[in-house]
Specification:
The chain is α+β, with helices and mostly antiparallel strands and 415 residues long. The chain folds into 2 domains: 201 residues, no CATH class; 127 residues, Heat Shock Protein 90. It contains 14 helices and 7 strands. Keywords: Kinase, Membrane, Transferase, Transmembrane, Transmembrane helix, Two-component regulatory system. It holds the Pfam family HATPase_c.
Length: 415
């Protein structure tokens, strides 16, 4: 049942990560479309200012106001339509580009031939770039450049209809070039942003998968491997067919250690201390606090001194159990490497920001790089059962050791 529950939890976690990635992608798209909407609204204000300023010189002033009305209405319609992801398809994009094309082309009827020849801007001015931006956001630089090409043709047609194609000034040419640059640059930026978002989502998923693997490895370290080690030992003592069973159990134990990165078997005392934390799934009973002191005083013996404050040191139940399990692993390492009678001291410190537990022993100490070598060879008891547990609680582990000077491990868990 625990394996099945782990698989179900992992499946739920993966579904949750997929949902988070979808939400993140939707948030990016929403931000991009909001930017286009803001640009469209500001460009509408600018177009209104230009039309108002030049209204006295138009050949058909009423036509200019009609074009401004079309710009205003379509600005509202497009802003609302692009908010709905289901509507961001070809019909809306085509309509957006058609409105921009028609408003640009209307300049040939509203403006005088002289003003067109001298380079007065088209009626929508920079408003038409909103369509280019919309196409670039929807399909990247290719669609952005395509929309710019269509509107560039509209600018050329204005001169052709007005009979001034031979006198096209730098203003028109600059406007066409800016449209192409907008479609190209914005489309490229959008593509890079979406690729970066996808890479970030994959990195987050890989990190979550790594944490899940480490959590499962710790559970293997605390349960399955202990049973296999016991079967191997008892089978060797019993002899006969039981010895063969013990040998097979030993092989499976070695295979699981290689796959899960678990360390050597823990003692009965360590298993008992870890049982309190292993019985709780991460995040459960988060609102109920537990006094950490009784979980540590169980480690006291004639050779182990445990010092705690006089007042309760409370943590959420899961955090207290995991921290106690990490300390039990530390004490198990002390007994394994320093002997059963080795002197050790456990100190619990409490402050408003964090809880700190330090364990110091009089053992032989460790040479530099010892833990890295152990991790490289697959012995990850310290890396996962101690550091992994504290890291998952948001805390830190500091290890100070030198040959002949013992070892001190300090674990700090924030509140």
């Amino acid at each position: 049942m625990p394996v099945r529950e782990d698989r179900e939890d992992h499946h739920e976690d993966r579904e949750g990560r997929d949902e988070d990635a979808a939400v993140t992608g939707a948030a990016l798209d929403a931000a991009l479309w909001r930017s286009v909407a803001v640009y469209r609204a500001l460009a509408l204000v600018y177009a209104a200012v230009v039309i108002t300023k030049n209204s006295g010189g138009y050949a058909h002033p009423l036509g200019a106001w009609a074009v401004l009305a079309v710009l205003a209405v379509w600005t509202g319609v497009a802003t609302l339509a692009y908010r709905d992801p289901a509507r961001r398809g070809w019909p809306l994009l085509a309509a957006d580009l058609a409105v921009a094309f028609g408003c640009v082309l209307a300049t040939a009827w509203v403006e005088t031939a002289h003003h067109i020849a001298v380079g007065r801007p088209t009626l929508p001015v920079s408003w038409v770039a909103a369509s280019v931006l919309a196409w670039a956001v929807a399909g990247g630089r290719r669609l952005g450049v395509t929309a710019a090409l269509v509107l560039g043709v509209a600018n050329l047609l204005v001169h052709a209809v007005a009979g001034t194609s031979g006198g096209m000034g730098n203003t028109t040419l600059n406007g066409i070039v800016l449209l192409f640059l907008a479609g190209l640059v914005v489309g490229q930026v959008v593509r890079l942003a979406r690729e970066a978002e996808a890479r970030l989502a994959r990195a987050v998923e890989m990190e979550a998968a790594t944490r899940e693997r480490e959590r499962l490895a710790r559970r293997i370290h605390d349960s399955v491997l202990q049973v296999l080690a016991m079967v191997q030992r008892r089978g060797g003592e019993a002899g006969g067919e039981a010895a063969e069973l013990g040998r097979l159990a030993g092989e499976q134990e070695a295979a699981l250690r290689a796959a899960g990165g678990a360390g050597p078997p823990a003692s009965g005392m360590a298993r008992a201390a870890r049982a309190h934390g292993a019985a709780l799934a991460p995040g459960t009973a988060a609102g109920r606090d537990t006094d950490l002191r009784p979980l540590l005083t169980g480690q006291a013996s004639t050779s182990v001194t445990v010092s705690t404050p006089a007042t309760p040191v409370t943590l959420p139940e899961h955090a207290a159990g995991e921290l106690a399990a990490a300390i039990a692993e530390v004490m198990d390492n002390v007994r394994r490497h320093c002997g059963d009678g080795a002197r050790a001291w456990v100190l619990l410190e409490d402050d408003p920001a964090a809880v700190t537990v330090s364990v110091r022993d009089e053992g032989p100490g460790m040479p530099p790089g010892r833990l890295d070598d152990a991790a490289a060879s697959g012995r990850l008891g310290v890396a996962q059962s101690i550091r992994g547990r504290v890291r998952d609680l948001g805390g830190t582990v500091a290890i100070v050791s030198a040959p002949g000077e013992g070892t001190e491990i300090e674990m700090t868990v924030p509140r």
